[in-house]
Amino acid sequence: MATPAPHPLSPPIVIAHRGASGLRPEHTLASYSLAIEQDADFIEPDLVLTKDNVFVARHENDITGTTNVAIHPEFAARRTTKLIDGESHTGWFTEDFTLAELKTLRAIERLPKLRPDNAKYDGQFEIPTLAEVIALAKRHSVGGRVVGIYPETKHPSYFASIGHPMDELLVAQLKAAGWSKPSDPVFIQSFEIANLKRIHTMTGLRLIQLMDSSGGPADHAAPSYAEMTTPEGLKAIARYAYGIGPGLAMIQNGDAAPTTLVADAHAAGLRLHPWTFRAENAFLPKSLQVGTDPATHGHIDTAIRRYLDLGIDGFFTDFPGIGVQARNAAKENR
Fold first, then answer.
1. Residue 334: beta bridge partners?
2. Which residues pair with 16 in a beta bridge?
3. How far apart, in whole angstroms, are the C-alpha atoms of residue 30 and residue 9?
4. Cβ of 55: how many Cβ atoms within 10 Å?
5. pTM: predicted TM-score of the whole model, two decimal places
6. Residues classed as catalytic
7. How far apart are CA 44 and CA 134, in angstroms?
8. Cα–Cα distance between 116 and 93 in angstroms, integer?
9. Whether the predicted pLDDT of 1 surpasses 70
10. Which residues contact 77 (CB under 8 A, 6 or more apart)?
11. In angstroms, how far is the first alpha carbon of the chain from the final one?
12. Which residue, 52, 221, 246, 281, shows the most beta carbons closer than 10 Å to its own?
């Protein structure tokens, strides 16, 4: 008798990773708006804080590669070097700017060689606040449709160490938006552990423990991500989180055989929302690439289908339109 195909614990959701970031510069209202047009279930803002404690959506607090700050002479003196989560970074950082100052900057494409079409939009879009992202999601939650948000706290222990703790501020802003229950259209994610445990005591919103195939959490609350994926480690996560967000390679490394992580996490009652499906050859397994140019788009739809067939409960993608089509096709074929 054939082994039955694994089933997700919940209907799979499509999470627009930094918006439709394969088609517009990431973390811009243009990117989020396009993702919503393409029927993504959730839009994902990475959150960092300004000098005046306002959440803004940026991939990192180092905005050197995602804004045009370098061409602003009035901010030249703010270029500096900082140690963040044990790594040295030189550039400009959100915590050294007020929101009003950041609003004078414009977004630029982070991966211009792989996404030259995105680079054509350089200089057009502002840095959005969390409040603006929430308003956008709510504005499109009409006619029975609900657009959710999936914020990630970036470097929470670092921000706390410089006098900008994130947890209470984030929970309060989401509560003010009307979101505090597990049924609300919000997931809060973090690569750290301690802040998720604190947030767990403050709100009923669903939490996602992010993890990668190497290293460990920056707050050193666990020795490694690998240890967190053992059956005991997953049980421990289930005490404070709704699910996990593993890197794709933790479930299937390229064209290798799948690991047991989906089954193990499901056994602990955890959902899985792996990251990140991207269309460019540079991010795809060899068998799904087209040609040899790293920027050429390969068979991302097949990649997504492979993981859906393994029973994942959702996924992050830079191309939510393709993600929605692949998810819907998989649903029809079940």
1. none
2. 43, 317
3. 32
4. 24
5. 0.96
6. 17, 59
7. 11
8. 25
9. no
10. none
11. 18
12. 246
